[in-house]
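Bug: token stream looks shifted between consecutive jobs. Job 1:
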Amino acid sequence: MSVKHKKSELGGKPKWLKVKAPSSPEYLKTRKIVQKHTLHTVCEAASCPNVGQCWHEGAAAFMILGNICTRHCSFCDVTTGRPGPIDPDEPGRLAKAAHAMGLQHVVITSVDRDDLDDGGAGHFADCIKELRKLKSAPTIEVLTPDFRDKEGALQLVLQEKPEVFNHNIETVPRLYPKVRPAANYSYSLQVLKQAALAGDEITAKSGIMLGLGENKDEVIEVLEDLRQVGVIYLTIGQYLRPSITHHPVIRYWSPEEFSEFDKIARKMGFQRVESHPLARSSFHAKK
């Protein structure tokens, strides 16, 4: 049964959303490597609840192109503002960090960079190229912005053939004006469709958050839309409010309801599904 969120209970979470504070030696080792190579991770920037477990397992989702985003999505904890210049040495440092961590699968994401002519797509491509140079090259997953209105940008990434191309749909179309005002639902679907059609080497992936005000039928319609454009990997997780200034949690969906969405998604033809309250885009990405 679902738990309704009340304003007076801000900060109080159901027991299934509580996680231990990260402190293991393995977690500290991963943090040290990230800091040594002066890299950003979405694990930290977006206040991911799984950072302790993922870093304990030696996994991290690298966030390139700085840690300041040009867009202001009401759910996101990444800082909004005017980003600095691109760091040309970042792709090399990312590859060195991946090697030091012994990663077999690397996830690369970024802030939105609407200030750049290519939206940062060329920098994504450079990171992929550097990772391919490693002696034991890992598989690569990119979680990209929509590169909206940046002609040819998406192709710069797709031509490097990352094994997984992820672009999160985030929420249902009705909530886009409040949750993701600078984006467009139909445009995001077209980005995913292009990735799915780019070749058998690339698998299209997307994710959605629950708890922003959507209903079950709307979620199912989004899943149908994602399958129609060729997405076969899917994540569904519970939205957690980063601060009082962010979009409120309208509803906490129960683990049982997430399990139901898992079954629904698999019946639709999704090949890999992570659907549970703490699921995030990069959680268990190696699978």
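Job 2, same session, no restart:
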Amino acid sequence: MFYYLFHYLDQHFNFPGAGVFQYISFRAALALLTSLIISMVFGKRIINYIRKKQIGETIRELGLEGQNEKAGTPTMGGLIILAAIIIPTLLFAKIHNVYIVLMLISTVWLGCIGFLDDYIKVFKKNKEGLQGKFKVVGQIGIGLLVGAVFYFHPDVVIKERVTANQQSAYSFDDAISGNKNLTIPKYSSTPIKTIKTTIPFVKNNEFDYAKVLSFMGDNAQKYGWLIFIPIVILIVTAVSNGANITDGIDGLAAGTSAIIGTTLGILAYVSGNTVFADYLNIMYIPNTGELVVFMAAFVGACVGFLWYNAFPAQVFMGDTGSLAIGGIIAVFAIAIRKELLIPILCGVFLVENVSVILQVYYFKYQKKKHGLEFAKANRLFKMAPLHHHYQKSGFHESKIVMRFFIIGIMLAALTIVTLKLR
């Protein structure tokens, strides 16, 4: 909104200072500050309203230290996160940008699924909430939409690097024309539609999903969506559920997501800037720089929410927040074609997910082989997901959260290093 307003003022009235809104970095900073203000200042009012309406968390008895004290803590605090993301994005981003539109749709879509789950738990007094199959259907739905838009929309393109032979041709034209100021382009002026992505630790770090269908010859690109869209659905579902599972102790999901979001914001900035993309020898994706504004709002929302969600939590985000932030991370990574970096960057989400899967299948295996009592007495983890295992082992949840944060920062650094480590 403000981008268009100040652009108009700059163009027609030469309004002093209006031109600064053309800079992504400036608008991202404003989005971050606005998000923090919304989540920290207005968030308190939302928490008081939730408490007044007695929208409190129902705690299942898991035998964890300090668990009973959490009963009645206001939940559905994800509404704070959603507001702190959506409002600054609408104010400071270019709304006509296809990536921004898709991020907003994904945020609202998954937020609504989470809200419905929380509503059933709180108001219908059903501890199970929305049935898992309906959650998955909703996640598949947004994954299908995201995959289809990224594959078919004409504005979702990349620009390939100019080859050495093409650069030599420019140099030759420069020589015969005598124009010493002719700039040799690093990237083609013609954008192309492709489903290439970034693959870590490989010298030529681009992978085309269509290569999986190479046996189809010339039709491989035409039918590449058969591979691409299911992969998008899988990633959105997995990361969304990973964030949901991680949201088990005070501050863990919000803080980890802020670390991941900061890293993705950096990757979006360098991927949407020809200078940095050329220096790092990575894919240049036009118009993705605008995503930095959205991600700044996302990080501000997570950090601002931590003000109230850090131990001892005054509010829980609930599925309203956790499903949304996981989906946002997944869709954002796909948009900047860094989704294959998710296992590294979202390593905390990954191990939390894997710990639950291993716990379930190991229990079933032991039950089948040795019987129910043996399986109960010899679980792989004391409790899953992994953060509860450490709680059962005697670690205070604040220490668990801080150590997970440190691991998250290390994984974020490793993710950025992969841009050159190949």
